Structure formats: C-alpha cells, structure tokens
Q: What sequence folds into this?
C-alpha cells in the first residue's frame, strides 16, 4: 500500500444519506479479488442508464446526466463529500477498492458504517468525520459554479479551503499511522517479523512434537 501524501484535490458532492456498499459497487462485480479494475463500475446503478456487468466496456455506456460524477465540474475529483452513514450495508471490501481505483483518496461525511470505515484505512483511503453543520457548509460551497478544492494535511490533521479556512479533524493514532506509512494488515504484521521468528524458534525447542510431519 502506498503511503498517503498530502495533496489538494477537487471535491465531488454526493448529496445522499445512507449510501450502502451495494450502491458503491453492485453485487455482480464481486467476482474478482484483484483490488483493481473496479473504478469504471463505481456507483454503477447511479452512474449509468443501463445495467453493468463484469468486464463490460464502459466507454460507450449511456451516462446518467443527473449523477454527480458525470458532471464536468467534478471530473478528476479525488475527495468525495457524502452524507451520514456512508458505506452501510454489507461488509464487502470491494467498496473501498472501487473508490480508490476510481481515484478518490479522501471521503468526508458526518458518519460512516463501522466496517466500511475500518476497511478504508486498510486500502489507502482516508475517511474523515466532520460535524453535520460543517458538512452542510462544504456541500453549499461544492455546488458552486466551479468545483470546491480542499488541501488535505494528514500529519497535521487539518483540511484547508481555498478561502484559507482550516478545518481540523480527529483520527485514531493507529489508523493515521497505517496511512502515513502505507501499512495494510500484512505490512503491520511484517513489522513484527523478528518477534514472530523468535517465537517460532522457541516453540520448536519447547514443544518439538507440534512441528512433526506425518512421516516422522
């Protein structure tokens, strides 16, 4: 997993509450575990006017002109602004995969479903919880003639608007470390590789019968 770097990005305002993981990436796309290739199908049922299927060429599919990601103002957005309870529904990890593959790095909402929230940190996404009134103000700005741009400072835990306004956000130290150092679950485990090897060596000495093969 790549370390999270500070950046300035365009904001796409998804003005819906309770967006579930089946809306983020519909069930028919859950056949692959490669973590990549899901971006074209992100929000598939909202984004297109036809039904999407795995490995479908999306370049000529009819777009829903009312959906935010199809608005020219928000092309190339890397920050998703959402409403409460984002990521509810099933626990599919494909949801953060699809968001990251599309190009989103940050999701801002008043609240997230717990499993989705934790899955974001495992896949390089930064979910930021802000008060509902702050999110309301950001939505008002994001719906302007031009896309709102926000600078994200993860180490400093602050968002900076183009007006110069700074918005601090809270983040668990462990999750922050995951993103800053680019550590998924495997990466975190490998940091304890020496301790794991020492434990295995000790166990082989203390209980050698546990390591016998069937022919021994």
A:
């Amino acid at each position: 997993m790549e370390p999270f770097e500070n950046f300035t990005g365009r904001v796409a305002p998804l003005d819906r509450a309770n967006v579930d993981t089946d809306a983020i990436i519909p069930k028919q796309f859950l056949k692959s575990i490669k973590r990549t290739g899901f971006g074209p199908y992100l929000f598939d049922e909202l984004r297109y006017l036809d039904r999407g299927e795995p490995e479908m060429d999306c370049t000529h599919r009819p777009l829903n002109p009312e959906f935010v990601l199809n608005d020219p103002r928000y092309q190339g957005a890397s920050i998703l602004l959402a409403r409460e309870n984002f990521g509810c529904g099933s626990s599919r990890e494909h949801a953060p995969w699809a968001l990251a593959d599309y190009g989103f790095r940050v999701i801002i909402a008043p609240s997230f479903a717990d499993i989705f929230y934790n899955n974001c940190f495992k896949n390089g996404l930064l979910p930021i919880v802000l008060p509902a009134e702050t999110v309301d103000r950001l939505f008002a700005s994001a719906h302007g003639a031009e896309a709102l741009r926000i600078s994200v400072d993860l180490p400093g835990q602050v968002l900076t608007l183009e007006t110069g306004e700074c918005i601090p956000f809270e983040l668990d130290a462990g999750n922050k470390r995951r993103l800053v150092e680019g550590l998924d679950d495997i990466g975190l485990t490998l940091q304890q590789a020496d301790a794991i090897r020492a434990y295995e060596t000790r166990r082989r000495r203390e209980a050698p019968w546990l390591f016998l093969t069937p022919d021994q």
